[in-house]
Design a protein that fits this description.
alpha/beta; Rossmann fold; five-stranded parallel beta sheet; 6 domains; Helicase, Ruva Protein, domain 3
């Protein structure tokens, strides 16, 4: 090899003096694994063997490497550490091996690497996992034979420097990055250091050691750590390991006064375990300024108040009109559309995404607050409401939910309007009489549902306890200020543990000037297992909601409607029995599963119910969302679009809404809706199972399966029931009908059990294909003929069970069930289908004439209306795969004059 020049040698010696690291260290710890690691490295040092020290960042790997050199055969020789993480990739080779000089090239100056520079010293290579394969190969050659090549060098260079490897990561990950030759060389020479969280007994020992070190360094007397400080240190997770502990103790020593015991308040280990995976959005000044603006959330409250006045106005006005008025129809009344197709579906979804954000912008409480500005008595909350607490909103929800369906509020504009008026009135009375928002906290029916679902939310308002304890003494977030009211929910942010008690009104944020309020973005579901003492009322209500959501979907099942027709019981009785039955089928099995689980965990049944009932909330939410999406995607979206088309015709053509039949062709296939419901319900089950396991593991890592198995079996049972109820066939069941009204009918064959395949159906009547400009658009409208309608009578079809709908697809469950009730005419050319209906407001002595429009109009049957306004007959169909219109006309028996008509399009 070309020898280094004298100037390069002198320069390398100066550089060496700057990088030599002292090795006067101690290995402290009583943990078994640390003692074993210490014993192993002492043995390897005495045998003068190469060592690989592996561990997470901050676990003391460099301390062990220095300890190795301290115990080696030549502890007085030089010891140098280099970190590959601090070097450029192109500088690693030259730093270790040096660079071969080229006398013929003036720019190729030589350089001595650490292997030559140290002589008989020790080189510790930190972050050895970053060595590339070529560098590892050169090191293996050096460790085996004692020589290496400089970078760009061709001749071998001998050296006697000892090499130690320090790698960051798990043992498996580090070994995976080494070449097979280096792995073989280091076999049985690996010293692994566990993370500090696995050395709980060593934390107080290390803390006391560093306390004395930094006290001496700062010339300060300290008398040890207080018990609270030690508990705080032991309970922390220490992601930075020993290095983080060293920094925490150093900071505490600097801040502490002379001759004191370090208190717990000086141990800064934030975030705590509960704050992991949370991000405080208010750290962004722009977000903080926006949310502290006086108009937030007031402007949204005012908008919602305007909307609720519109909703109540349309529903009350439409409900007070005659039965044939356009606003009596659901699809023509914007108040009904907004209330049941926009407002109610938004509630559960918003609670999951943003907590009780709806409560912050609720128009019901907003109107009450406006009225309370006129006169407010500020009476204290009644004691019985405080005792009932969340139980009261549970009772309110159950009462409203039962009455709403019992009275059919969602189908009647007047009932919907009166429901809004009653709730607003009760809210106003509470706002005027009692302090803050007593109605929202203790009485509101929606508060129970929104509060329960908000526990799954990704947003939360919490208080920073440290800031509250050290910088705040006025508690303005709870009491309020001159310009901002105190917490309307009677909650103190620093002690808040559940979203169920926070309505995200942001009053606390506006009151606090110390930045003690946090708006955290957190993982969903996390609150379910982070609550140390969940309320039994909240948990049990979550289980109740599982049953209630199934109850809401259950009446739509065709199989249940068949049973209901056979019972012939009053609807009110059936509703009451099914409502109570579904509640019981949810609560009773849960009590049994909690009893078994409590026996396994040796705790009270009530405590088990309070903890594990939280795990059922995700399944309840999935059922709720699946139900509202079923109603919205099946019919609601077409009602909304149809209304916009009617509104368009009203504005552009001057046709009043309700005078044109609008047909919106469905664009969402039923299989898509079914798939969405399946994914929602299965996702809810997955969320519940995750919560169940996490709740059990948080209590204890022992006997987890024994404690969760009863609840897991119950969850699977609920999920199976949900699949049957939510994915089952819906629509009216097939009914037997009387003889046809038309003459000359053929004998009939046995009706098919399923709709005949398209190939077996009679072909459609041939007709010219319309030009593109004449093709039937997705939204079609046909003007009614009001000149022929002189009666206020209205039609409602019972079979097929489509009521007064103007259109319905062939593939819908209702029409499919109707088709299955048909009878094939001999020869298979036509099919007879039963039709039943009711005429409200029919004059005695009138007839119902039913016709079909399939290209041309064909009369089917004419029958008199009975005393109850009912009629029935049969129609003949040639095909089930073409657009067909059923035209119903009420005809005067004497004058043959058309008194009223109704047209239903099946497409």
């Amino acid at each position: 090899a070309v020898p280094a020049k004298p100037g390069e040698v002198a320069q390398s010696h100066d550089q060496l003096r700057q990088v030599i690291t002292p090795t006067d260290v101690q290995v402290i710890g009583e943990d078994k694994r640390i003692r074993e690691a210490k014993k192993k490295i002492e043995k390897l040092a005495k045998e003068d063997q190469t060592v690989l020290v592996v561990g997470a960042s901050g676990t003391g790997k460099r301390t062990f490497a220095r300890y190795y050199h301290q115990l080696s055969l030549h502890p007085d020789y030089s010891y140098v550490e280099i970190s590959l993480a601090e070097l450029d990739a192109n500088s690693v080779g030259p730093a270790i091996f040096g660079i071969e000089a080229d006398p013929s090239a003036t720019h190729m100056k030589g350089r001595i690497g650490y292997l030559e520079m140290l002589g008989t010293g020790t080189l510790a290579i930190a972050h050895a996992e970053l060595l590339d394969a070529h560098q590892q190969s050169n090191l293996v050659t050096y460790l085996r034979f004692g020589w290496f090549h400089r970078v760009y060098g061709r001749e071998s260079v001998k050296a006697k420097t000892k090499v130690l490897f320090i790698a960051t990561g798990t043992e498996a990950d580090v070994l995976a990055k080494l070449t097979p030759e280096l792995r073989e060389l280091l076999q049985d020479r690996i010293v692994f250091l566990p993370p500090l969280i696995q050395r709980l007994k060593d934390i107080p020992i290390l803390a006391e050691h560093y306390l004395q070190v930094f006290a001496k360094k700062n010339a300060k007397r300290v008398n040890g750590l207080a018990r609270e400080a030690t508990e705080k240190l032991v309970s922390y997770s220490w992601p930075g390991n020993i290095k983080e502990l060293e920094n925490v103790i150093q900071r505490a020593t600097i801040v502490a006064s002379e001759d004191v015991i370090i208190p717990g308040d000086l141990i800064f280990v934030i975030p705590s375990e509960k704050e992991i995976h949370k991000k405080n959005l208010l750290r962004q000044d722009k977000i903080r300024e926006i949310l502290r603006h006086p108009l937030v959330p007031k402007v949204f409250v005012w908008f919602n108040i305007l909307m609720v006045f519109i909703m109540a106005g349309f529903t009350l006005y439409g409900g007070s009109r005659p039965q044939d008025h356009a606003l009596q129809d659901f699809g023509n009344n914007p108040g009904m559309l907004i209330t049941w197709l926009v407002w109610f579906p938004i509630l559960p979804i918003s609670a999951f995404l943003l907590g009780r954000i709806w409560c912050a912008v609720c128009p019901i409480a907003g109107i009450g607050e406006l009225l309370s500005r006129i006169k407010k008595f500020n009476l204290p909350v009644p004691k019985f409401l405080k005792r009932m607490d969340f139980w009261m909103v549970v009772i309110s929800f159950l009462f409203l939910d039962y009455v709403e369906e019992f009275l059919g509020v969602a189908k009647k504009p007047w009932s919907t309007g009166m429901l809004l008026v009653i709730i607003i009135s009760v809210s106003a009375v509470f706002c005027i009489l009692f302090e803050r928002k007593t109605f929202c906290r203790y009485v509101c029916p929606l508060a129970g549902m929104l509060g329960t679902y908000s526990t799954l939310s990704v947003l939360e308002i919490r208080g920073n306890k440290k800031i509250c304890q050290t910088q705040c003494g006025q508690h303005l977030c709870y009491k309020g200020t001159e310009h901002t009211n105190g917490c309307p929910m009677f909650s103190y942010p620093a002690s808040l543990t559940t979203n169920a008690e926070c309505m995200l009104c942001l009053s606390c944020l506006k009151s606090c000037e110390n930045r003690g309020v946090q708006l955290n973005l957190r993982p969903p579901l996390q609150e379910l297992w982070h609550q140390s003492q969940p309320a039994l009322s909240l948990s049990l209500f979550g289980v109740m909601l599982v049953g209630l959501m199934a109850r809401h979907q259950f009446p739509a099942l065709t199989s249940w409607q068949t049973v209901q027709q056979g019972l012939n019981w009053p609807e009110g009785l059936i509703h009451t029995l099914t409502y109570l039955g579904f509640l019981a089928m949810a609560v009773v099995p849960f009590v049994l599963s909690a009893t078994l689980s409590a026996a396994a965990s040796q705790e009270k049944v009530s405590e088990n119910m309070a903890h594990y009932g939280m795990a059922f909330i995700p399944l309840a939410l999935s059922g709720h969302v699946a139900h509202v999406l079923h109603e919205f995607l099946q019919e609601g979206i077409y009602e909304m679009l149809g209304y916009f088309v009617k509104l368009y015709y009203s504005v552009t053509a001057g046709n009043p809404i309700g005078t044109r039949d609008v047909v919106v062709s469905p664009f969402i296939h039923t299989s898509v809706i079914t798939f969405i419901k399946f994914m929602l319900i299965t996702g809810g089950l997955l969320g519940s199972v995750i919560a169940l396991v996490m709740i059990a593991r948080r209590a204890s890592v022992r006997s987890v399966m024994g404690r969760i198995m009863p609840h897991l079996i119950l969850l699977l049972f609920f999920w199976t029931a949900y699949l049957f109820i939510f994915l089952g066939s819906t629509g009216a069941p097939a009914e037997a009908t009387g003889s046809p009204a038309t003459a000359g009918q053929s004998t009939t064959a046995t009706p098919p059990s399923t709709p005949p395949p398209a190939s077996a159906l009679p072909a459609a009547v041939p007709k010219p294909v319309p030009a593109p400009s004449q093709a039937v658009p997705p939204v079609a409208a046909s003007a009614k003929t009001p000149s022929t309608v002189v009666s206020a009578a209205t039609f409602s079809l019972l079979l097929p069970d489509i009521k007064n709908a103007a259109s319905i697809p062939w593939r819908s469950a209702v029409v499919s069930a109707w088709v299955r009730s048909g009878q094939a005419v001999a020869g298979g050319k036509q099919y007879l289908l039963p039709v039943q209906g009711r005429v409200v407001g029919a004059v005695p002595g009138t007839l119902v004439q039913v016709s079909l429009e399939v290209g041309t109009s064909t009369a089917q049957f004419v029958v008199p209306v009975d005393a109850k306004g009912l009629f029935q007959g049969q129609i003949r169909l040639d095909s089930f795969n073409q657009r067909t219109a059923i035209v119903l006309q009420l005809v005067d028996a004497k004058t043959k004059k058309v008194l009223s008509d109704h047209r239903v399009v099946i497409f």
